[in-house]
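Deliverable D2.4 — example input (structure tokens):
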């Protein structure tokens, strides 16, 4: 990452209508990925990758700010496919989502929390080893993506990161 690399802008205000994403996963996922995003994994008949934190889960799609703003899925912002990452070589998977779309838990997961990713390559478990809150939203990302998997969301007026290693 260069010093000019920008974080996803998670500072958008919630849409005027009620958020289309509930706090928990609906029984049946939406059949299409977010606009401008491609699914990058497979789980079940809808061919999506899923992140699971306890009883909460979300589909993950690759995408940019448009996919984040669509509030439908967690968005893989950057990095290699889940299960092929190597945090020691700075090949970190970064998954983001707006706090007001149900992804606020990404910001400050307690150390020791296990996150499961189900992908076409298999099921992978990651354990949180640290989290960090950076002042402001959409600030430069230099030095803020670590480990095998970084989860990112806003927390109040700031941006929170949970850092995970594959177990």
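Example output (designed residues):
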């Amino acid at each position: 990452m260069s010093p000019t690399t920008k974080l996803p802008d998670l500072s958008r205000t919630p849409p005027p209508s009620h958020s289309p994403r509930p706090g928990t996963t609906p029984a049946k996922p939406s059949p299409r990925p977010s606009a401008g995003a491609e699914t990058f994994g497979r789980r079940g008949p809808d061919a999506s990758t899923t992140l699971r934190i306890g009883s909460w889960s979300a589909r993950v799609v690759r995408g940019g700010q448009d996919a984040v703003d669509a509030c439908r899925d967690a968005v893989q912002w950057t990095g290699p496919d889940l299960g092929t990452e190597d945090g020691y070589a700075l090949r970190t998977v970064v998954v983001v989502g707006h706090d007001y779309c149900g992804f606020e838990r990404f910001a400050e997961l307690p150390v020791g929390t296990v996150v499961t990713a189900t992908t076409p390559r298999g099921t992978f478990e990651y354990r949180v080893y640290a989290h960090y809150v950076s002042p402001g939203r959409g600030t430069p990302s230099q030095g803020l993506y670590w480990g095998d998997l970084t989860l990112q969301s806003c927390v109040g007026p700031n941006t929170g990161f949970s850092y995970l290693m594959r177990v």
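The chain has a mean pLDDT of 78.
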